[in-house]
Amino acid sequence: MTSVWVIVLCAGLILFVGWAVQLNNTVHHADRVSTLASLHPSWSSELIRAVDRGDVREGVAERHPGWSLLVLEAVTAHELLLGMTPEMVVESWGRPADINRTVSVYGILEQWVYERWHATGFLTGFSFPDRYAYLQDGMLTSWQE
Hints:
alpha+beta
């Protein structure tokens, strides 16, 4: 009979600790949301929630206050969206290894070449073109991975 009470007490203690941890996490979450709101009064509640969830990096949102939530989320995920500016592409994928530029009557076409390092041994290897972004007149029109 005593062992049954010990098991019941242990189960109750485990439930209480789980509840306390969840309550603590909820308090910290609320503190973070209110801190973000006070640090960035111009941010929408939607943007604050996205930063809190980790869908948007706080630094990216600070550096680019005029960008839409959709673009900020894509940049955080290192993804591209049609219509991005060169600055958005660089923020998402980084600086290209090379830019091939064509000037024609149709405008300025650019192929941004991104390379990936392929290790062949300790501190040895080679890089090769891995993916491409295509811009026309300063706007992302396509990409290839």
